From TrEMBL:
<comment type="similarity">
    <text>Belongs to the glutamine synthetase family.</text>
</comment>
<comment type="function">
    <text>Catalyzes the ATP-dependent biosynthesis of glutamine from glutamate and ammonia.</text>
</comment>
<feature type="domain" description="GS catalytic">
    <location>
        <begin position="86"/>
        <end position="349"/>
    </location>
</feature>
<keyword id="KW-0547">Nucleotide-binding</keyword>
<dbReference type="InterPro" id="IPR036651">
    <property type="entry name" value="Gln_synt_N_sf"/>
</dbReference>
<protein>
    <recommendedName>
        <fullName>Glutamine synthetase</fullName>
        <ecNumber>6.3.1.2</ecNumber>
    </recommendedName>
</protein>
<dbReference type="InterPro" id="IPR050292">
    <property type="entry name" value="Glutamine_Synthetase"/>
</dbReference>
<keyword id="KW-0067">ATP-binding</keyword>
<dbReference type="GO" id="GO:0005737">
    <property type="term" value="C:cytoplasm"/>
</dbReference>
<dbReference type="GO" id="GO:0004356">
    <property type="term" value="F:glutamine synthetase activity"/>
</dbReference>
<dbReference type="InterPro" id="IPR014746">
    <property type="entry name" value="Gln_synth/guanido_kin_cat_dom"/>
</dbReference>
<dbReference type="Pfam" id="PF00120">
    <property type="entry name" value="Gln-synt_C"/>
</dbReference>
<dbReference type="InterPro" id="IPR008146">
    <property type="entry name" value="Gln_synth_cat_dom"/>
</dbReference>
<dbReference type="InterPro" id="IPR027302">
    <property type="entry name" value="Gln_synth_N_conserv_site"/>
</dbReference>
<keyword id="KW-0436">Ligase</keyword>
<feature type="domain" description="GS beta-grasp">
    <location>
        <begin position="3"/>
        <end position="84"/>
    </location>
</feature>
<dbReference type="InterPro" id="IPR008147">
    <property type="entry name" value="Gln_synt_N"/>
</dbReference>
Length: 349
């Protein structure tokens, strides 16, 4: 039977890239990534090439079943230039984690959006619903809006084999979250993008769009949306000392601008110091502090400083590839420090 391979990639639009996809039919397909051929597309239609030399290459990097299509597969692709090099828009190629030492768990928030009213689900045509507070992890028709979409999304993600670890209604009306974890920075990004793609496609059926913007309700007193990045590497997982965590967290301080640059457009609207955020102009870290730039989970401390960190600054529209690439680079800059290496070596001895 012929297989439907949905090749998915990121376009070149700025400041926020969008998902693109097209279907390739393959006869007698094995279902394996190595049997997915490279393919091309018109980069002049996606802001990735000029019209006079428009071919860009799709390099398959991740595959899973497509639960919504008969004999279908979802194929996440990197974009290459016509000469086979990584395209400038290819954030995945920036990740320096070939040994999968970095583990990432992304908490992806988003709004279910009514395109007719240009408001989230649960917002009346005129005015606003009750103030936020009653919607977080809520139940009931007055509190939770769009659960049918969210539940279908969870099912298809699990059927596809994505490592979703949970879902919940978020603080604002019509706002939801799913969490995905993977061992390997690249695969974590792959799975987030596939999950985003599936959610967008589910929304098509009911005429509901997915609003990934970090602050779609502007300056009103409603929470924005983030994509908190929980991360660890062998140094953090085997640290055993507070000093190692302090050193790694401090490595983020001098490169705040580099991180904010890839943490999603318009983040200054979200990172205000309110609504469980730190100010975009500050850098801080603290134990169990959701108002800090980086939260040190209480469980990490209780386990004797073995665990992970949470960077709370990436926003909901950020590219998980670029977020992971920047975090990996910063953490590696700290781990090679002699002071940290000495702590790690003593613990592993």
């Amino acid at each position: 039977m012929a297989a439907k391979l949905e090749y998915i990639w990121l376009d070149g639009y700025k400041p926020t890239q969008s998902l693109r996809s097209k279907t390739k039919i393959e006869k007698d397909f094995s279902g394996k990534l190595e049997d997915c051929p490279e393919w091309s597309f018109d980069g002049s239609s996606t802001e990735q090439a000029p019209g006079g030399s428009s071919d860009c290459i799709l390099k398959p990097v991740f595959i899973c079943k497509d639960p919504q299509r008969r004999n279908g597969y979802l194929v996440m692709c990197e974009v290459l230039t016509s000469d086979g090099n990584a395209h400038p828009t290819n954030g995945r190629a920036m990740i320096d984690d070939d040994d999968n030492d970095f583990w990432f768990g992304f908490e992806q928030e988003y709004f279910l959006w009514n395109p007719e009213t240009n408001k989230p689900l649960g917002f009346p045509v005129n005015g606003y619903p009750a103030p936020q507070g009653q919607y977080y992890c809520s139940v009931g028709a007055k509190n939770a809006f769009g659960r049918n979409i969210v539940e279908e999304h969870l099912d298809v993600c699990l059927d596809a084999g994505l490592n979703v670890e949970g879902i919940n209604a978020e603080v604002a009306a019509g706002q939801w979250e799913f969490q995905i974890f993977a061992k390997g920075a690249k695969e974590a990004g792959d799975q987030i993008w596939i999950a985003r793609y599936l959610l967008e496609r589910i929304g098509e059926k009911s005429g509901v769009s997915i609003n990934w913007h970090c602050k779609p309700l502007g300056a009103l007193d409603w929470n924005g949306s983030g994509m908190h990045a929980n991360f660890s590497n062998s140094a953090l997982r085997t640290a055993g000392k507070k000093e190692i965590y302090d050193t790694i967290c401090e490595a983020f301080r001098p490169v705040v601008a580099e991180h904010i640059k890839v943490y999603g457009a318009d983040n200054e609207l979200r990172l205000t110091g309110k609504h469980e955020t730190a100010s975009i102009y500050d850098f801080s870290y603290g134990i169990s502090d959701r108002g800090a730039s980086i939260r040190i989970p209480l469980a990490t401390v209780e386990r004797g400083w073995y665990g992970y960190l949470e960077d709370r600054r990436p926003n909901s529209a950020a590219d998980p590839y670029k977020v992971a690439a920047r975090i990996v680079k910063t953490v590696k800059s700290a781990v090679v420090d002699e002071k940290v290496s000495a702590f790690v070596e003593s613990e592993l001895a």
